[in-house]
Amino acid sequence: MTREPEAAASPLAEVLGGRTGALDAGVPAVAFVTGWAIAGAGSTTDSTNAVLWGAGAALAAGVVIAVIRLARGRRPAAVVLGLLGVAVASLVVLRTGRAADFFLLQIASNVLSTLVWAASVVIRWPLLGVIVGLALGQKTRWRADPWLLRGYSRASWVWAAQYVVRVAVFVPLYLSDQVIALGIARALTWVPLVACVALSWPVMRTALPEDHPGIRYPRSRSGESTHDQ
């Protein structure tokens, strides 16, 4: 069966989603900074109290976001992981008493994500292909398509670069104890995420022949669609 190639309006965007999730994820960080600032940020005598209020605000925001995500039909496991991240960040900052440490987990996560995305390309299991393949119910059939494998590898480097940019922004702010700037940077992480979603398909398309049917219909090396096999 002959199929028209997918439109250039980024079919990956339909699978990967937009900026809503990233916006939601930034709310607890904004809540932390807001609570911390209102409760006496910069005051030596009130620093512990400020961190306590900030952590409480972040946890409250995390619970609200979790409820909203569940109401939207999000997977419970993903919701729990998101809330767990807020809880761990709050525990870290309560333990250390340093407000900037609320973002320590975020920085570590970005460093780890950089390594994982890069390693996935090196071992020829590009993470973008794994994510999209699972989302489309293809499992690993896309790996039999040399063009998709190459395309997912190229696009996965875009995602690795996103995390490099995040680390390059967060680490100097963390080292200089710029808590408010860290909160702003965390709230704006949807920007590189949206850029990645937008760029992933054009970058992938450079690896696909003109007559390739697209990500939904992987081909085998013989040129036959694995969907039809």
Task: Describe the protein in words.
By secondary structure, the protein is mainly alpha-helical. It has one domain. The protein is 67% helix and 0% strand. The protein contains nine helices and no strands. It has helices at residues 11-16, 20-38, 47-71, 76-96, 104-122, 127-135, 146-175, 179-187, 190-205. The longest helix has 30 residues, at 146-175. It is elongated. 34% of the residues are buried. Keywords: Membrane, Transmembrane, Transmembrane helix. Pfam families: DUF3159. This is DUF3159 domain-containing protein. InterPro entries: UCP010219 (IPR016566). The chain crosses the membrane at residues 21-39, 51-70, 77-94, 114-136, 157-175, 181-201.
Major β-sheet, in short? none
Weakly predicted, low-confidence segments: 1-9
Helix content: 55-70%
What proportion of the residues form beta strands (DSSP E)? Answer: under 5%
The coarse silhouette is elongated
The SSE string, one letter per element, is HHHHHHHHH
Q: What's the count of strands?
A: 0
Q: Helix/strand-derived class?
A: mainly alpha
From the N-terminal CA to the C-terminal CA, the straight-line distance is: 11 Å
Any idea what the radius of gyration is? 21 Å
Number of helices: 9
Quickly count the domains.
1
Round the mean pLDDT to the nearest integer and report it.
86
Pfam families: DUF3159
Keywords: Membrane, Transmembrane, Transmembrane helix
InterPro entries: UCP010219 (IPR016566)
Transmembrane segments: 21-39, 51-70, 77-94, 114-136, 157-175, 181-201
